[in-house]
Structure formats: C-alpha cells, structure tokens
Specification:
By secondary structure, the protein is mainly α. Helix content is 65%, strand content 1%. It contains 13 helices and two strands, in the order ααααββααααααααα. The relative contact order is 0.18.
Length: 345
C-alpha cells in the first residue's frame, strides 16, 4: 500500500465514520440527533468508525475482497450487539423468536443485514465513490443497485425517503436529523475533495496499515471491556447463551478467514467528477420533502418495510455467502494482489 501520512488518512476515516453513523443510526432514528449533539457525534463516530476501519483493514489485507468477505466482516462488526448493547439478547422493542436467549429476528435484521450493509458496506462504497480512484466495492454490488434504470432509481429513493420519514415519526423534527446528516457528510466530503485527494489514491491504500489496524483493534477491544459491565449488565444471560454466541463468533471468524482467500481484481475508474450542484440540490430537496411526507404516515409501516427487506436480504446473504465461502478450499492459492494501488493521473 502507499505510504500515506496518517493525518491525510484521518480526514478520509472521518468521512467513513460520518457515513456509517448517518446510514446506520440516523436513517432509522436510533440516534436522530447524532450530528446535532457534539458529544454524541464524537462518541458515535469513534465507535462506528473504529469498527468499520478494523474490519475493513482485516478484509483488505490480502487484496480486494469479494462481497462475501465484506458481508462476513460486517457480520462480525454487528455481533457487538450481543456484548456491548445486549440488544440481540433483549431487544428494546420486545422479544420475537428467542432460541438460547438469542432473539433470532433481531440477529437476522441487525447482524445479517443492517450492520453488514448500512454500517459497513454502503459507507465504504459511498466513500470509495466520492473520495478515491477505485471502484472495487462497487464492482461487487448487484448491477440493479449500482446502475439502476431511472425509474428504478426514483422508486428506490422514494421508498427509502418515505420509510425514513415514517420511522422518525415526528413531522416537527424530521428535517433536523436528515438535514444535519447530509450537511455533516457533505462538509467532510468537500474537505477531502478540496485538496484533490480523490484523484490520487484507491480505497485500499487509504485504509489502516497493519500497525494502525492493530491500534484500532485495541480501541475496539476497549469498547467491549468498558461496555460489557457498564451497559445494561442486568441483561446478560446464563452461561449456555454465552457459549452459543462464542460459537457464532468462532464460526463467522472461520468463514471470514476462509473467504479472504478469494480476492478479486482491482477495478480502476479514475477520478470521477462531483455531481453538478443543481442535481445535488434537487436530490437533497426531494429527500427532505419525501421524508416530511413520510413522517405523516404510520411508523409501524416503516418498521415493517425495513424489517421485511432486512430479513429477506439477510437470509439470502447468509445462504449465498455460506455457499461461496465453503467453495474456497484450503489448498487454493490466492491470486497475487497488485503492488501498486495508486491511480496514475
């Protein structure tokens, strides 16, 4: 990887952290004022950013990862909902189907879809698109998602914006979290692109080096050590439930390690121009209007839409990724990764 100064990487890492918080927390009103309250902004950015960077570092160490590898890294990311928040043992919205003290629906929605995609893959893909010269993650995503027709693009955007508004619930405040998240991400993206940095490096070269990755791993370990006894300790289950969770961690870790042998070729796109200002204003304006309209609807509808999509997509990824990871045998040699990840301009 390129020898990039840490202070340069930190700007890009801030962008990834903001994107992760915005897509994972603000969109479903888990932390609607994440970019209004400075304390919340710092904490959530450090928390989500450190998890994202740790698992991205692990996923990209051997080369450009496949979608299966990225998803498995995102699952390991999302399993913090056991020990840090305790949500996968005792969801705040009430139990659904509980097996061994584990809420299966919450596991599928949060660990198999929400964190892998909304907190990990999509922030990396967006950060790569607006801040680098590569398109390694974009090339792994389904074509209907990355190159949708105009009709499908409008449909996806409309459903997402209306659902976001429904979940926020209050028409009086819906514009505040939406606008604050957009402004925060836009400001950091502008800061990053202002120096022409998006014309120089690939996503992989901007991720932590091995030394930096180990330091970030210590920070993630700190979250576990701190919050296991401090955050809802009364929700901790009996020993048998812990054994099941340890097996989940071990199983997905093994699958992730196996999956990393299947690296992909780097796809270079070169520096891409920013969207025209008028187009950005149109999309942001449409987002605000649709979110406001959605907030007039029933929040239960928004929850059903999110849970329905997350359940189907999470199970499909689990089945597909298991098939993909198990096809990679221990005797396969990984293809040589490119030594030069720098895009020449």
């Amino acid at each position: 990887m390129d020898n990039i100064r840490l202070r340069t990487k930190l700007i890009f890492w801030l962008l990834l952290g903001f994107l992760s918080v915005a897509t994972a927390e603000v969109t479903v009103s888990s932390a609607p004022f994440a970019f209004i309250n400075p304390v919340e902004t710092v904490f959530l950015t450090l928390f989500y950013g450190s998890h994202l960077l740790l698992f991205a570092w692990l996923a990209f160490r051997r080369g450009w990862p496949s979608l299966a590898t990225l998803w498995l890294a995102g699952v390991l990311f999302g399993l913090y909902e056991f020990y840090i928040t305790k949500v996968l043992w005792a969801p705040p919205w009430g139990d659904t189907i509980s097996v061994g003290h584990i809420d299966l629906v919450a596991l599928i929605v949060l660990a198999f879809f929400w964190h892998p995609f909304m907190a990990f893959i999509f922030p990396l893909a967006i950060g790569e698109r607006i801040g680098t010269t590569s398109q390694g993650i974009r090339s792994q995503l389904p074509r209907w998602l990355i190159e949708p027709s105009r009709r499908r693009r409008i449909l996806i955007f409309t459903i997402a914006a209306l659902t976001h508004g429904m979940i926020i619930r209050s028409s009086g405040v819906v514009l505040v979290p939406t606008a604050s998240a957009v402004l925060a991400v836009t400001a950091v993206a502008w800061w990053w692109r202002r120096g022409g940095r998006n014309r120089v490096w690939t996503l992989r070269s901007l991720l932590p080096s091995d030394r930096q990755g180990r330091g970030i791993a210590v920070l993630v370990g700190f979250w576990y050590v701190t919050f296991i006894p401090l955050w809802n300790p009364g929700l901790m289950p009996p020993l048998l439930a812990h054994v099941i969770v340890w097996l989940l961690y071990a199983g997905f870790a093994v699958l992730f390690t196996t999956s990393r042998r299947a690296t992909t070729a780097l796809e270079q796109a070169g520096p891409r121009p920013a969207w025209p200002r008028r187009r950005v204003i149109q999309w942001v304006g449409s987002l605000l209007i649709l979110s406001l309209l959605g907030s007039l609807g029933r929040p239960e509808v928004g929850v059903v839409v999110v849970w329905g999509i997350a359940t189907v997509a999470g199970l499909r990824m689990l089945i597909g990724t298991l098939r993909s990871a198990l096809r990679v045998t221990a005797t396969e040699e990984p293809p040589a990764s490119r030594d030069d990840d720098r895009a020449h301009t």
